[in-house]
Specification:
The protein has 586 residues and is of the alpha+beta class. It contains 27 helices and 17 strands.
Length: 586
């Protein structure tokens, strides 16, 4: 990596982990910690825990853990330097880079993004002022795009020319092709990918341009839309158009509207619903859901959800459950785009979102509406069609509520419908294994762990009460060893082996509630007891007077460090003796 180490530390120190995490989930103060619902796995009760002072988090559900940099890496899908840059930017820290060793992939991405940014600006300028963009400007005006909107969404115009952009950019062939901005033709000359099209630049969540969607002007040859192909910068299944602008509105409303077109996103923004994003020429994917989950618990589909079909429906139910997102369907008039409605009847568009129905309710409603219910046969057929839809849903409780609705509409006995549903094909199974929270894995809560918690969270309270020799468990001893030299938790973690680091990262977000004196007495008595048994055994093999004296002293001392009423002086003597012994035996 290319960022100077010192600067990484500065960024870490300047960052308030609680503030960073709060942008993605609600945190609540509990004792010394902050807790919330884990953003990395689906859960109903909070297992995500933060130690604000040390800037570390740990999830008891999925064992996700780390510091602010790790968190930003995971949640923003960035690499290490990218996450440091992201945080540095927030903290107003200017980073210094080492000349050598900068990650090649990173450098490469930077060059591609730079070329994309120049292309966005160049296309945008062309649309605003070039004479050959007159028709495009006229078309956009008829669609309700004034200058402000064109500027806000950085719309552009790709002139009807073979290589106008390539001649401006003057980038190497591989940059031109890897950005999807152009290609090298058979005569070995650079050629533009887009010509004669209005361009909608597509940005990633960070606001970096990664692709374009290009719309042809009415009356011209060619497919209506042409999008950038997949590239090192651009994966269709992950990117949502508009998220860079709308994420704040999505968090605020706790709702994301998902539509299909770039102009739909802009149309929603136009009527004050600044929370719409669009898939870029693909169906909604699990990646999209995972991304949206970071910002909201509710997704409203503003496209023809019926056309998405049964396979899509089953996936939606799985994702609803796995990501705890409610999926609803906007109440749009059939055959009308949100973009059109935004211009012709903005109030209707707003009410379409306000009146969205749960996804299953929408599908059942469609099935009921499609059937004839004026004859007994018709009612039975309609009920069967509706039951088939209901059967897709994984939850018993949800299914049952819709059965009541179908029974009512088709004038049938709900129990008969239930029986019928039970006989039918079983609904698809619930959550993909990967999305299931891992078992909590809490270890037995013993005195050694209590002692480590104190050593981690209240080191001043345990002072010289503890020593490595008190830990019988090798892993616990390793953690204590790593803590002993002091320093920040990051320095401590750096000198840990992975298993010790894992345990430490969990302890750091727990509570240190035990009484230090009590814990020290329990551990000292236990360690002394182990030493006593060793000496006894040795003495049985070959008797030694000096050893016998030690045994007698130990027996007496152990009685005096009874946890309920320990003599601090004797405990200190015992501890000193135990560590001496340990040094002697190596
Ligand atoms: Zn988790």
């Amino acid at each position: 990596m290319g960022i100077v180490d010192e600067d990484v530390v500065r960024v870490r120190d300047a960052t308030d982990l609680v503030a960073v995490v709060s942008q993605h989930l609600q945190l609540k103060r509990v004792g010394q910690r902050w807790v919330g619902l884990c953003p990395f796995h689906a859960e109903k009760s909070p297992s995500f825990s933060i130690n604000a002072e040390q800037g570390l988090y740990y999830c008891f559900g999925c064992q996700a853990k780390g510091d602010a940099i790790t968190f930003v890496r995971e949640i923003e899908h960035l690499d290490f330097p990218g996450a440091v840059e992201w945080l540095a930017n927030k903290a107003g820290i200017t980073l210094r880079y080492t000349d050598t060793g900068e990650n090649e992939g990173r450098k490469r991405r930077k060059r591609l993004v730079e070329a994309m940014s120049r292309a966005v600006d160049w296309y945008h300028e062309r649309l605003l002022s070039s004479p050959d963009a007159k028709e495009a400007r006229g078309y956009l005006r008829t669609r309700g795009f004034d200058g402000d909107k064109v500027r806000e969404f950085k719309l552009g115009w790709a002139p009807d020319d073979w290589d106008a952009l390539a001649r401006f950019l003057k980038v190497p062939d591989d940059v031109l092709t890897d950005t999807g901005l152009g290609f090298v033709n058979r005569r070995n000359r650079q050629q533009d990918a887009f010509r004669g099209r209005v361009l909608f630049p597509i940005f990633d969540v960070q606001g970096e341009p990664v692709a374009f969607g290009g719309r042809i002007l009415p009356g011209h040859e060619g497919p209506k839309y042409k999008n950038s192909s997949e590239s090192p910068l651009y994966a269709k299944s992950k990117v949502l158009y508009g998220l860079n602008w709308m994420k704040a509105g999505i968090v605020e409303a706790d709702e994301a509207i998902v539509c299909e077109g770039y102009t739909d996103v802009i149309g929603f923004a136009d009527v004050g619903l600044r929370r719409a994003v669009a898939t870029c020429g693909t169906a909604l994917t699990e990646e999209h859901f995972r991304t949206l989950k970071r910002y909201t618990h509710r997704v409203v589909l503003a496209f023809d959800a019926d056309a998405a079909g049964q396979a899509a429906a089953e996936r939606f139910y799985e994702w609803e459950k796995a990501y705890e997102i409610d999926v609803a369907v906007a109440d749009l008039p059939p055959g009308v785009d949100p973009a059109d409605l935004a211009r012709t009847d903005p109030e209707r568009l707003v009410s379409a979102i306000a009146g969205a129905t749960p996804f299953l309710g929408f599908r059942v409603g469609r099935a009921l509406a499609a059937g004839a219910v004026d004859t007994p046969e018709g009612r039975a057929r309609t009920a069967e069609a509706a039951l088939a839809v209901i059967a897709e849903h994984p939850s018993d409780l949800v299914r049952d509520q819709y059965i009541m609705e179908v029974a009512d509409r088709c004038r049938l006995d709900p129990d008969r419908l239930r029986a019928q549903l039970a006989r039918g094909p079983a609904p698809r199974s619930e959550i993909p294994p990967s999305a299931r929270p891992a078992p909590a894995g809490l270890p037995r809560d013993n005195a050694e762990l209590d002692a480590l918690r104190l050593a981690v969270l209240r080191p001043e309270a345990v002072g010289d009460l503890l020593d490595e020799v008190l830990f019988e468990d090798e892993l616990h001893a390793a953690v204590f060893r790593a803590l002993a030299p002091g320093g920040t938790m990051h320095e401590v973690l750096d000198r840990c082996d992975p298993r010790a680091a894992e345990l430490l990262q969990r302890l750091v977000v727990e509570e240190a509630g035990a009484d230090p004196e009590n814990v020290a007495s329990v551990l000292t008595a236990a360690a002394a007891g182990r030493a006593l048994r060793r000496l006894d055994a040795a003495n049985r093999r070959s008797f030694d007077v000096e050893r016998s004296r030690q045994i007698a002293w130990l027996k007496l001392a152990i009685e005096q460090v009874d946890p309920d009423d320990a003599d601090p002086e004797v405990r200190a003597q015992l501890l000193a003796w135990l560590s001496e012994q340990a040094e002697e035996t190596g």
